[in-house]
């Protein structure tokens, strides 16, 4: 094994080690990664989400350490001895056979007087963000960002989210001069000003001046004016961290950066450089996509491959302060005799420019501001003939470019350098849906802007994205729901006779049962409906492995009086039930025979409980922390809200289970972000997060809306849940539903928060009907002899318990015996 | 109505009143000798199969959802959702697994299961 030392544990260094591992390089290289930051690699592109609720943990790219890979964080490389092939770090000396410089870059701070005063910051690392946050919390009211580029605008948004009045000072005549032309920059400035950020363009900063306390207090401008401020963030550009290479005599570029050839090798054949520290053909790339491309090339080379890096696309699409900005190809129109086609619509806040070849036949590049939806289809067209009239491509109602128009060499995913050809091949090899394409090619796994194109490619390749529920219905769940709603169908038999074939199965029957229940069709065990219900719904309790049931009394928000707690204990004792505390702040009573359920429910109902939904595709629990009721950090009444939410949404049938939690402050003790809808208290109200889950693929929920009062919050959740119920597929959890949605979270926010489809009132009315018609399902069974008849051991011997059920004692409690573990492959496994 | 006796049963066990067994529904029936049948009425007929799910050992099949696979009447176990033919008792997931079946008769008043002679 040879020693590979990687200096720098940023995104590109991380990608290099991943790429080596993916190619099976762990047998050839022993890798040591040295990173000076106190944590392992994180997603710097998403850094500003740190101010929007993301934690350092969320941003982490994961731990690289494993067989053959050591990661040393908090350790800085200080010198390089190329003769001895060693690198000295603050933690010791490492020998290498090959060395990779992935040191990235550092923010450039212009040497104006006062640039190093207390109160002056940069914007690059999580530590930088923590320092800015601390300054804001210490009472800062106003902040100035020097630099109106991409990072400067992100920094301005961060200040805004921290509650500061934000100014942006840009030397160039317009914002984002590197990506956007003057027209786009002017429109962008207008949109940014609308958000309350003051924009000063063509403004040169000459000095930072201190106040009486010695901290930065004003920024002096070249025109003689000044801006009063409490803090200054410098974000005027970056400089490659090439000092190690310079000191060791490795060639560096005129304007910095370690010179590399097309194999990412420096002037020393044993030393490579990738990412923002590398200078390739005179260019230092400050974007992640070229860095990733270099990492892939170098990984290939380190394993004897022949890959080359010949330059990269600097196209970008991002959302800054909620404004879409994209630029691609020759955005500035530097090609000789090129033509522009421009739509500059100040009325709707959209700017779009296409740069075309002199005969207007070939797309060379473009700029989109305000609405970048066309980016995914336009960017891969760069260098190709344009289909139809150019104006049609950027007109407000422009049709998306067909996947047909793309040549095979067109890069569909520029973040991961995946071409249309790669994707078509992957589809041919059996990747038949978007998740499979993502896993196989990595396309769509970074910024996600190309996902709509992936769908169109699947369509074009004739992969019918079958939504058929099962062999009995060709419809998707959402389509069936619409049929049931439109036709007023109230029974499964009527539905299958009119719209399906055969007699149904264990897939379509519960799905239709759920639809009927979601639309309000009385008790779920009424008449034919009883025969449609899945295992647990069929007897309103959780069936366990030996055919007995567990009962989980509803304890809204997890709040319970001692007397009621004693009732649960007495019921468990009297019926001999195994008792365990659940993860959902309830108490689970196991081992009830079918025929015992009514008697158990009777006892619970008498004590004021209802047996709860710990089962079924329905609302489970709304967990809470104690919030302002007890906690010295709480800022809102999380228990009260959790109880009101659980009582509002209990019994709601949905495409999959629904979990929720309410945390009373940002410490998030209720783990709300692991829920389908989680609520976290802020000083001003509540933040609503959606699309989280635990389980096999854990996922944190994303912020949908912030600082809502309770009424607005409930309206928002009403709409979210009803929209989910109406449009999701069978067994599609909220996270997968949002991911599969065209436009994803942004679209969901438009529908739910901004009511872009005009259906909010209808969704709210549907939820109001649910709340108004909710009844205790278990008490209703006790009141109806017909339904009670379902709870018998044997039709011909109702007093005889099932003789196959037996218990033994483990840790002083009854547990099932005699059945052994299921040994055969099940259908669920086989899927 | 009589279902799937390969030879005439010599004794019948009363399972339940006819009205108790509703369409597409099932009940558990205790047979002489301690075995249990899962008794179903579907759109295509009456069926009785062993109530014990061979994949889990639990006596739960009477609580499964009935339906069809390509026309073959089926019940799905409520535990791990393995599917069985109601006609033959064969597992549609694993052809080596088969449930015992019994003939069923409904005279309009009482549903009965034939318990001797087969199987």
UniProtKB/TrEMBL annotation, chain A:
Residues 616-755 form the Nitrite/sulphite reductase 4Fe-4S domain. [4Fe-4S] cluster binds at residues 625, 631, 665, 669. It is an enzyme of class 1 (oxidoreductase). GO terms for biological process: energy derivation by oxidation of organic compounds; nitrate assimilation. One of its GO terms (molecular function) is 2 iron, 2 sulfur cluster binding. Its cofactor is [2Fe-2S] cluster; FAD; siroheme; [4Fe-4S] cluster. PANTHER family: NITRITE REDUCTASE (NADH) LARGE SUBUNIT. Catalyzes the reduction of sulfite to sulfide, a step in the biosynthesis of sulfur-containing amino acids and cofactors. This is assimilatory sulfite reductase (ferredoxin).
Automatic annotation (TrEMBL), chain B:
PROSITE patterns: NIRD, RIESKE. Residues 13-113 form the Rieske domain. GO terms for molecular function: 2 iron, 2 sulfur cluster binding; metal ion binding; monooxygenase activity; nitrite reductase [NAD(P)H] activity; oxidoreductase activity, acting on paired donors, with incorporation or reduction of molecular oxygen. Keywords: 2Fe-2S, Iron, Iron-sulfur, Metal-binding, Nitrate assimilation, Oxidoreductase. GO terms for biological process: nitrate assimilation. This is Nitrite reductase (NADH) small subunit. The lineage of its organism: Bacteria, Bacillati, Actinomycetota, Actinomycetes, Streptosporangiales.
């Amino acid at each position: 094994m040879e020693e590979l030392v990687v200096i720098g544990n940023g995104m590109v260094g991380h990608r290099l080690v991943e790429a080596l591992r993916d190619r099976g390089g762990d047998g050839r290289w022993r890798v040591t990664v040295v990173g000076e930051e106190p944590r392992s690699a994180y997603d710097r592109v998403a850094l500003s989400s740190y101010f929007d609720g993301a934690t350092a943990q969320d941003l982490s790219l994961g731990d690289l350490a494993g067989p053959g890979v050591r990661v040393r964080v908090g350790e800085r490389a200080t010198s390089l001895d190329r003769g001895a092939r060693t690198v000295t770090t603050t933690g010791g000396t490492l020998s290498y056979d090959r060395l990779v410089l992935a040191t990235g870059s550092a923010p450039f701070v212009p040497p104006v007087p006062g640039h190093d005063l207390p109160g002056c910051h940069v914007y690059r690392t999580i530590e930088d963000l923590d320092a800015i946050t601390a300054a804001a919390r210490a009472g800062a009211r106003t902040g100035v960002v020097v630099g109106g580029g991409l990072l400067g605008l992100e920094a301005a948004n961060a200040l805004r989210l921290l509650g500061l009045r934000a100014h942006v000072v840009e030397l160039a005549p317009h914002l984002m001069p590197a990506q956007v032309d003057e027209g786009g920059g002017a429109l962008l400035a207008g949109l940014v000003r609308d958000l309350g950020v003051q924009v000063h363009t063509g403004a040169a900063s000459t000095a930072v001046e201190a106040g009486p306390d010695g901290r930065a207090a004003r920024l002096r401008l070249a025109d003689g004016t000044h801006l009063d401020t409490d803090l200054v963030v410098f974000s005027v550009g970056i400089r490659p961290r090439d000092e190690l290479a310079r000191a060791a005599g490795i060639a560096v570029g005129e304007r910095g950066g370690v010179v590399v050839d097309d194999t990412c090798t420096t002037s020393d054949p044993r030393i490579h450089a990738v990412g923002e520290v590398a200078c390739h053909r005179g260019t230092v790339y400050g974007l992640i996509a070229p860095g990733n491309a270099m990492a892939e090339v170098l990984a290939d080379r380190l394993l004897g491959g022949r890959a080359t890096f010949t330059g990269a696309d600097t196209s970008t699409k991002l959302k800054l302060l909620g404004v879409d900005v994209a630029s691609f190809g020759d955005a500035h129109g530097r090609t000789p005799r090129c033509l522009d086609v421009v739509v500059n619509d100040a009325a709707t806040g959209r700017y779009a420019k296409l740069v075309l070849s002199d005969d207007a036949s070939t797309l060379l590049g473009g700029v989109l501001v305000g609405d970048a939806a066309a980016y995914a289809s336009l960017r891969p067209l760069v260098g190709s003939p344009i289909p139809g009239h150019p104006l049609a491509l950027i007109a407000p109602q422009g049709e998306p470019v067909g996947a047909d128009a793309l040549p095979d060499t067109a890069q569909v995913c520029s973040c991961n350098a995946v071409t249309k050809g790669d994707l078509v091949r992957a589809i041919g090899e059996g990747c038949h849906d978007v998740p499979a394409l993502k896993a196989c090619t990595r396309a769509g796994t970074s910024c996600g802007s190309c996902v709509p194109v992936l769908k169109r490619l699947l369509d074009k390749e004739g992969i019918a994205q079958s939504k058929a529920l099962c062999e009995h219905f060709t419809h998707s769940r959402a389509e069936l729901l619409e049929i049931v709603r439109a036709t007023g169908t109230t029974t499964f038999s009527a539905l299958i006779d009119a719209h399906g074939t055969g007699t149904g199965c264990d897939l379509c029957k519960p799905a239709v049962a759920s639809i009927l229940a979601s639309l309000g069709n009385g008790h779920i065990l009424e008449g034919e409906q009883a025969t449609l219900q899945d295992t647990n719904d069929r007897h309103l309790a959780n069936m366990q492995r030996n055919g007995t049931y567990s009962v989980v009394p509803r304890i809204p928000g997890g709040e319970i009086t001692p007397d009621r707690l004693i009732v649960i204990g007495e019921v468990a004792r009297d019926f001999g039930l195994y008792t365990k505390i659940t993860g959902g702040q309830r108490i689970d009573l196991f081992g009830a025979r079918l025929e015992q359920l009514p008697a158990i429910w009777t006892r619970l109902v008498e004590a004021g409980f209802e047996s709860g939904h710990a089962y079924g595709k329905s609302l489970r629990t709304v967990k809470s922390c104690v919030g302002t009721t007890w906690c010295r950090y709480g800022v809102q009444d999380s228990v009260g809200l959790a109880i009101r939410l659980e009582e509002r949404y209990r019994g709601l049938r949905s495409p999959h289970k629904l979990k929720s939690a309410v945390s009373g402050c940002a410490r998030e003790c209720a783990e709300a972000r692991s829920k389908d809808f989680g609520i976290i208290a802020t000083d001003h109200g509540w933040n609503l997060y959606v699309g989280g889950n635990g389980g096999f693929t854990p996922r944190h929920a994303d912020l949908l809306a912030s600082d809502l009062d309770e009424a607005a919050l409930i309206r928002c959740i009403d709409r979210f849940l009803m929209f989910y119920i109406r449009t999701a597929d069978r067994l599609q959890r909220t996270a997968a539903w949002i991911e599969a949605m065209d436009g994803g979270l942004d679209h969901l926010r438009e529908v739910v928060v901004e009511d872009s489809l005009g259906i909010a009132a209808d969704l709210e009315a549907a939820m109001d009907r649910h709340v108004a018609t909710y009844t205790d399902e278990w008490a209703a069974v006790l009141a109806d002899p017909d339904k009670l008849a379902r709870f018998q051991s044997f039709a011909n011997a109702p007093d005889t318990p099932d003789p196959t059920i037996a218990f033994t004692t483990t840790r002083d409690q009854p547990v099932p015996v005699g059945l052994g573990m299921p040994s055969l492959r099940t259908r669920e496994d086989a899927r | 109505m009589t279902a799937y006796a390969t030879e005439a049963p010599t004794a019948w066990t009363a399972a339940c009143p006819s009205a108790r067994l509703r369409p597409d529904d099932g009940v558990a029936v205790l047979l002489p000798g301690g075995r249990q049948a899962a008794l179903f009425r579907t759109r295509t007929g009456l069926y009785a199969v062993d109530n014990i799910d061979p994949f889990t050992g639990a006596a739960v099949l009477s609580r499964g959802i009935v339906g069809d696979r390509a026309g073959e009447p089926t019940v799905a176990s409520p535990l791990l959702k393995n599917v069985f033919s109601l006609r033959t008792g064969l597992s549609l997931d694993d052809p080596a697994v088969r449930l015992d079946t019994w003939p069923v008769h409904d005279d309009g008043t009482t549903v009965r299961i034939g318990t001797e002679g087969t199987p």
